Amino acid sequence: xxxxxxxxxxxxxxxxxxxxxxxxxxxxxxxxxxxxxxxxxxxxxxxxxxxxxxxxxxxxxxxxxxxxxxxxxxxxxxxxxxxxxxxxxxxxxxxxxxxxxxxxxxxxxxxxxxxxxxxxxxxxxxxxxxxxxxxxxxxxxxxxxxxxxxxxxxxxxxxxxxxxxxxxxxxxxxxxxxxxxxxxxxxxxxxxxxxxxxxxxxxxxxxxxxxxxxxxxxxxxxxxxxxxxxxxxxxxxxxxxxxxxxxxxxxxxxxxxxxxxxxxxxxxxxxxxxxxxxxxxxxxxxxxxxxxxxxxx
Length: 297
Prior knowledge:
- By secondary structure, the chain is an all-alpha fold.
- The protein has helices at about 10, 15-30, 35-50, 55-60, 65, 70-85, 90-110, 120-140, 150-165, 180-195, 200-220, 225-235, 235-245, 250-270, 275-290, and strands spanning about 165-170, 170.
- The relative contact order is 0.14.
């Protein structure tokens, strides 16, 4: 079916965010978002999530981000695409939520010396709020138009619904409080970020590993320093200081901002994708495997 040059906005305009929010998120992420954009949310978002020392300690204990960063990246992509593109009500979406719940419980049982790492409700709210508000926060910080009101509603419904099917160590989150609307999500994130956090060695080790993996995965050797700067900018100065991963000079920050603005403007001019994000990710993985001489199986 011929969809036209900029067809996503036309389809979104026909939908009601109160009832069609799941389809809206699937359409937007599936056919508007490049894989690279998803990666820019994953790495700095995880650095923000582990501002609490207990979260950083758990991520360091599992060692997945330091010893197997590519596998951790693929797993995170699997969860996000199942929830965003397949949809939370789909079989893939429900299976992904069940799998994450099992992983959290298994890690909690394996780390009795780290009590409560999967029992603080805020530690579940915050990552979902970050994912829902990431695009708007980044675009407005660059002086660009942010998320539309209908998409803000859709993103809130998505985050709230996913929160309801997740479980903490002591039981389901279905009856726990989640911010009641978009503005409340933004307010929650500001307050969470403003809490007094103490730097930890675990946070430094994991954040450094993530920054290096992002730079090596997405940038060729001459530009990897820029890849690290991009990660620092997206994580924010406060998080960089907390994890001791370096800070941006004003000149380097201007370069990163120019890059991001140019990327957003290019996306606004390019046609919408006709191949869904999961297939584009699979094709990219096959291409990288072939280039490195690895099996695609």
